[in-house]
Predict the structure of (S)-2-hydroxy-acid oxidase.
Amino acid sequence: MVHRRMPKPSEILPLLRPAPIRWDATERRLARAANIADLREIARRRTPRAVFDYTDGAADGELSLRRARQAFSRVEFTPSVLRDVSEIETGRTILGKRSTLPFAFAPTGFTRMMHTEGESAVAAVAQEVGIPFTLSTMGTTTIEQIVDIAPDVRRWFQLYLWRDRAYAKDLVQRAADAGYDTLMLTVDTPVGGARLRDVRNGLTIPPALSLRTFLDGARHPHWWFDMFTTEPLAFSNLEGTDGTIAEMINRVFDPALTMADVEWLRGAWPGTLVVKGIQSVADARRVVDAGADAVLLSNHGGRQLDRAPVPLELIEPTVAELRGEAEVLVDTGITHGADIVAAIALGANAALVGRAYLYGLMAGGKRGVEKVVQILRGEIERTLALMGVTRVDDLRPEHVRIRPYG
């Protein structure tokens, strides 16, 4: 039988403590985000539809991206209990140098379109955290500006080979002169993918003010204000970029790229060479034989060939084929720290994160990118502890398996 009584004021008062008031709007937004999915939703509300879809979308029916994420959902860990996990070490040696976390920031194009701080914010966060940052050929900040913004960040440069090899050679030399230690050659863009969201949204570079975008802009005045009151949006390393993304790719990039170009680049670049966009074990073998120091298993975030292989599922056979001759990196579909843990357990040396930090950038600029790192770090540490593993370096294939479909 329940006996009721009136509570004493001393018992009620401690329960009436109001939550601290957050006067800063960005801080309030980011405080509500518990994971990357929350940041994605904030980004969706904060940016014009065409901008969000450029980041969020993929090619054709977006099957490649969906399958990549489904593959991570099929991961099953095999935890071991009664282990001392009071201290967790998240550091990882990536391409010969230590990183505080087992991932790097991937190259992304037209980054200032998502937020005016763009690559400046991303590179600054990478420097603060101690992880590599990759600048894209399609970036909106120059090779040299990144050095001024984040002089101590570990800098990688992602390269598309152009029809004009002289200009590509100039970019490579500029990257070397500016202290970039890694060159990442992307090989999965002989032509532009069918990014249908961009087509339907009428996205052009630079963005055009159609009636539709004008009406959408009324719902996102802060974004348009930032765009009109800062430096014009443009690809900092390209000229003549008017038109759609696909039109620009088809006009500028070289569809005649072959293995001979990999060999030429190996001779021209003094640092570490990574080939990005590898989607088969056979191609991984070919580029390593041509001199690549690492392969990046990637289907371009699902933005090029739809129905492409799932990078996560390529890790084990690629590692088995290369037998330590080159490092194996992976991207596409990574939205949780456990995804990174799974990739490394399967044999990858590290992961690259792209969309996730762009969601953070759209949600809150530099502080949003910091929030992404905070979330991913916490998820990595928690996943390792619950698995009974104290160091990222101790992850092995026996710690994970991929459940069958169904």
